[in-house]
């Protein structure tokens, strides 16, 4: 039986890890590596009530995979989870027909929900188009939907647009960021009591204070326990302790990712280098993204060592 949207809304909280998609050295898919990574994440504490896994999202190289590959890697993640952590499948395709088809297939292989981003071709589409797109794709599936405001590739969602999305029955939440801080804050003011708000702005503590139910992890590919500690501190109102963890590791890792991103596209180069350093299945990013250089790997190893990241190989 598909996971009901209200069940996903109940479980969707805490540390949301946009997982890397493991590839072999010849760039072919590594489903066994994905299953192993999910099992390790569960063993590290990323479980129902504490977090969720986003599979085949932007950090998982969705633009460089075929729909068949994306469904295959989600199926491997579902197998690795065995119901112990919610699996959210990335869906970001142009046009209602293709997105609906991929979303149905994700539902069929057992995803608990989908992350649905707006179409990015012929864009930016006006919000009226985007609403029709969400309405149609949501109508094609039974599972819950986490909307995704990709304002850097499409028309930015306004805070008021979140209220419109809330009118669609199986939209349960929003992975929320905005180009202006004022809009970001207003999104919480209008919608935090209606949608599951997942912070994608790097404003973990502020977002929690405003009603966010979780945040996108920056270090979960190699150290989910770190972000789980941040979440528990926030839940306990221990914001100074949460801030110290963010300052010590989250910020240096973000700076490293930005630095790598200036010389190659996508997120996978940095994310996969860090995952490999603790023995997680990763492999190379698919071209045209390049792998991290030996110098970059040495730089991030020093950051991880200074923060006491366990399991470095």
Verbal overview:
With 313 residues, the chain is an alpha/beta fold. The chain has a single domain, classed as Alpha-Beta Barrel (TIM Barrel), CATH 3.20.20.70. The chain has helices spanning 5-11, 31-43, 67-81, 96-108, 127-139, 159-165, 181-191, 204-209, 224-235, 239-261, 268-276, 294-306, and strands at residues 14-18, 51-55, 87-91, 113-116, 144-148, 171-176, 196-199, 214-216. Helix 5 (127-139) links the parallel strand 4 (113-116) and strand 5. Helix 10 (239-261) runs antiparallel to helix 12. The N and C termini lie far apart (41 Å).
Tags for this entry?
TIM Barrel; 313 residues; 8-stranded parallel barrel; 45% helix; alpha/beta
Helix fraction, binned, reads 40-55%
| SSE series | HEHEHEHEHEHEHEHEHHHH
| General form | globular
How many domains? 1
Strand order, largest beta sheet: 1-2-3-4-5-6-7-8
Q: Approximately what portion of the residues adopt beta-strand conformation? A: 5-15%
Name of the level-1 CATH class: Alpha Beta
Question: Can you tell me the CATH superfamily?
Answer: Aldolase class I
Largest sheet: 8 strands, parallel, barrel
Tell me the radius of gyration.
18 Å
Proper CATH architecture: Alpha-Beta Barrel
Summarize the structure.
The chain has 313 residues and is of the alpha/beta class.
Chain-wise SSE layout:
Layout: H1 5-11, E1 14-18, H2 31-43, E2 51-55, H3 67-81, E3 87-91, H4 96-108, E4 113-116, H5 127-139, E5 144-148, H6 159-165, E6 171-176, H7 181-191, E7 196-199, H8 204-209, E8 214-216, H9 224-235, H10 239-261, H11 268-276, H12 294-306
Parallel strand pairs: 1-2, 1-8, 2-3, 3-4, 4-5, 5-6, 6-7, 7-8
Helix pairs in contact: 2-3, 4-5, 6-7, 9-10, 10-12
